[in-house]
Amino acid sequence: MTHYTIYDQDTAIAPADLVFSGLEQMVGFVPNVFAVLGGTPNVLSAFAEMNQQFMQGKLDPIEREVVQLAVSVQNGCAYCVAGHTAFAHQAKMGASEISALREGKRLADPRLQALRKFAEILAKRKGTDCSTALEAFLAAGFTKEQVQDVVLGVTVKMFSNMTSNMLNIPLDPAFASYQWEVPTTVTNAYAA
Q1: What is the pLDDT of residue 126?
Q2: For residue 128, how many C-alpha atoms fall within 13 Å in the half-sphere facing its CB?
Q3: 19: nearest Cα among 57, 51, 45
Q4: Residue 14: helix, strand or coil by DSSP?
Q5: CA–CA separation, 171 vs 121, rounded Å?
Q6: How many CB atoms lie under 10 A from the CB of residue 69?
Q7: How far apart are CA 82 and CA 172, in angstroms?
Q8: What pLDDT was estimated at residue 17?
Q9: What is the residue-wise DSSP string for 78-126?
Q10: 88, 84, 107, 89: which is closest to 97 by C-alpha?
Q11: Which positions of the chain have pLDDT values less than 70?
Q12: How many Cβ atoms are within 10 Å of 63's Cβ, its own excluded?
């Protein structure tokens, strides 16, 4: 496998260092999924901006983490599942909800389950044949505007899942206690 550099403030190509500074202020460090993009400031800036816009949408912090964990599990992204488990804890998501998301099990809260299912279906089917999940999402009390927030969240996660899976990005120390192994059902699906 080709080696990819994990950049830092000193090695990142300007203006990536400015994005890194913002991440350090917001998160406390630069997660490796961002740090690996330090050599391509345009891509890093686009990824950071998409994340920022997703955070400013109409989904609350727990709902955003439902989207991000659901898609990351769907895509078998060990790095992103670990990272978003940490962020879900910070958002005060319950331990049972986090476990259910990580294990691909049904959420007890029907509203969050409708959100989770909608995000998974979008990621899996790329927006096609998702009317049943969309209707369930809206029936659960979400708005038509929040549909696009979920689409943005899925898009953000698809980018980071592909990047993380392709480059096999090492887990940050802050995420190490939330390590996740891709279930064999997911890895077997990729073998075909």
Answers
A1: 85
A2: 2
A3: 45
A4: coil
A5: 27
A6: 27
A7: 9
A8: 87
A9: HHHHHHHHHHHHHTT--HHHHHHHHHTPPPSSHHHHHHHHHHHHHHHHT
A10: 107
A11: 1-3, 185-192
A12: 23
CB of 73 closer than 8 Å to CB of 101: yes
Find all residues with CB under 8 Å of 77, minimum gap 6, and list them: 157, 160, 161, 164, 165
Name residue 78's amino acid: A
Tally of residues, the chain: 192
Q: How far is CA 15 from the centre of its chain?
A: 24
Name the residue with tokens 């500074």.
Answer: 21
| Cα(34)–Cα(24) distance, integer angstroms | 11
Q: What is the pLDDT of residue 185?
A: 62
pLDDT value, residue 129: 84
Estimate to the nearest angstrom the gap between the alpha carbon of 190 and the chain centroid: 20
pLDDT for position 192 = 36
Mean pLDDT score across all residues of the chain: 91
Token pair belonging to 22: 């913002």
> What's the confidence (pLDDT) of residue 9?
87
Q: Residue 2: its pLDDT value, please?
A: 56
